Amino acid sequence: MKILRNILGFFLSLLLLSFITFSLARMAPGDPLVSYYGERAEKMSEQEKARSRERLGLNDSLMVQYGRWLEQAARGEFGLSFKYKRPARDVMSRRIMNTFLLGGLGFVLVFALSLGIGTFCALHEGSRFDRFMIRAGTISACIPEFWLCLLLILVFSVTLRWLPSGTAYSTGHEYDGMDRLVHLILPVLVLVISHVWYYAGIVRNEMIAELKRKQECKEKLTKEDMALLTICLLMEGKMPLKDRVKAAFQITKEAESAGQEELDKVETVLYVMADKFLESAEMDELREVIGMTRLGQ
Question: For a FRET experiment, which of 12, 181, 292, 295 has its CA 20 to 30 Å from that of 59?
Fold first, then answer.
């Protein structure tokens, strides 16, 4: 039932959005005949303009025009493109693959980078990299995409002349994969910069919150949870290394649901790292905690 409501809501939203877009396009200033005929519209007589408006259906009311468009759209016909003087479906079909290519590549990169950066920041909570990514992500989220596009074009296309400023491919290179890839760099870069930290921040915060919740509630940890928390505590962060190692040993002692073999391996790694990086006085403070583990016994 919930799925049906979601599907119904999707189509209602799509219908409302199409009506708003159609209405704004019809109410925009300017004569549609100029868009269709260009400069020739100014040389047309009033009789010719009247016949053209009648032929294009511009004399009908807004609701009649929208209803006619909606009926045609249901059959896969989206009307006539005033700019290209061709059916809109033909214009779209020539460009739809470029849209899918850009959107698909952007989605994959944003997903992969968000997962990687978010996980890395969670494991390095409080580190310089984590603080830098939080600040950089906040700034990038506040930059309008159109302004970022203009900035990148100014730098890489106008000033450095490294990358093309537009189009999907160079003239005569429609089937050149490398040429298309070069033309994708700037638009994909805009998509990544604009969206990656939003999702990376979600990954980071959710991972930290979930793992800390399990630790504080003393829930039974799986070996995956235990290993991740242990690594997180050993990374650079706000806590002193001694306290992080002590907390890590405490986790291994309480992780009853993890296999004993995995616990032994982690405790051994912890002890070696503690012995290597901690002072003798700090190691003495850890003796009691270590002695309570299987490794200490």
Answer: 12
